[in-house]
Amino acid sequence: MIEIRFHSRGGQGGVTASKLLAQAAFLEGKYGTAFPLYGAERRGAPVTSFTRISDREIKISSQVYNPDIVVVLDDSIMDLVDVTVGLKDGGLLLVNTHHDEKLKDPKFKKFRVARVNVTDIALAEGLVLSGNPILNTPILGALAKLGVVKLDSAVKAIEDMFSDDRNVKAAKAAYKKVVV
Amino acid sequence: MKKMATGNQAAALAVKEADVELVAAYPITPQTEVVETIASLVEMNKMKASYIRVESEHSAMAACIGASASGARAFTATSSHGLLYMHEMIHWAAGARLPIVMANINRAVGPAWNIWAEHTDSLSQRDTGWLQNYAATVQEVYDTVLMSFKLAEKVYLPAMVCLDGFILSHAIQPLDVTAPGDFLPPIDMPHALDTKNPMSYGNLTGPNDYFKFRRAMQDAMKKADREARSIEKEFAERFGRKYAPVMEYKTSGADTVIVGMGTLAREAEVAVDSLRKDGLKVGSIRVRQFRPFPKLDLEGKKVIVIDRDCSFGAGGILAQEIRFHNDVPICNIIAGIGGQDISHDTIAKLVRKAKPQGEFWLGVDV
Fold it and tell me: Fewest C-beta atoms under 10 Å: which of A65, A72, A90, B366?
């Protein structure tokens, strides 16, 4: 079983990203599940969401404490919480950022660190809602590049949920731009 | 057809497949998505129901009562304070013997203000005459809504389908959206209002007669226990998914059993697997059907009941119900209330340290 934890702010699409990932895994014939951990349900508040992927039925519905993968959609959250808490040694840390230096902290050495600027990708595609760039679909492209799901299933999952093809374009752009 | 859906969407899709004729609701987090999905299906003409946006939960149940009294299939969904606000009408629906189905997304009651999972809201409605089932998966939400309509319309008692707030209401899992076909026959209610045969209901009923109506409700609950078994059997034959009033896991040969309801009781099965690996003879029992309450097979076993609720001055409500039917010592753990996370690791630790009996709060006593 692979366990993924997403850190985002309300309105950025972190919860939808966790669901899209479960959907993509489901399309590959796996068992996927995802759920959010809401704090205050409002825009801008930090939100955590979880995805679990397995070849077998998943009976666990408690929170993820030892993720294999941590995804951070808003790097300002890294100043507030230790996003890598519980992340397995050698686990993947994927951060949406344009600050390289944020990821150079020695405490990240034991992880596989990847970065991508999905904010710029979302803005370039015009994926903006109420003034906020929507990051759920491009981050799925980045996760596909990192081997979590196949790009085809990521694209299909996005098409199942959104009719606007800019989402698929954004995912494909992020697939190309993610840096490990 | 299999797809991914949340617990909320599963409830809405089952309502669509059940050809519900009236939905009256007032949105409250975290059930909003149930009625939002239904409203959208109605708006897109994918569902033919009348959708009434009322001004309160009390009115939502009142509208369901009116519709159901005329013989229509009626549904609403609520949660926590919304459920408590409709309390008077909840009693009325049962007393009037109306087969309304309601989804309740289990959530704590304030203060302290809290929107997360807990069972006290619906358990506090246990004496109203409603059938109650607690689901643990998205599929089970869907299946239980369908089976609840069938059962409610057989015994003329309303049915509540309960699911954990956020943990299940907002979780996506694979869902087989099975069309029920003729599993649900058209509603047949001899006491439906009929303008061609006018009758009066709800009149003043004196002390020489009132108890007869109440006794009929108690008899209907007993009948429901039998009818539910045949409905589950038919459901399994038609759709291949098996349900029982209690879902037992590795209880054969177990000397210790964990008992609970909802998602935590399903997660307990993972704890059972890890404890079994260490040679401990542990099993688990997930109580699905809370009203009518089933008798559990606990003879000679150490019993650990996890309650996601509390009746202050008495303790865990599930533990109380079990004690009423089973003369066994119970280690009652109050855990998971107000969304307190309870993982399989925690459950396994609680089982290892469990005392033979008493009441223990996770985070306070254990």
Answer: A90
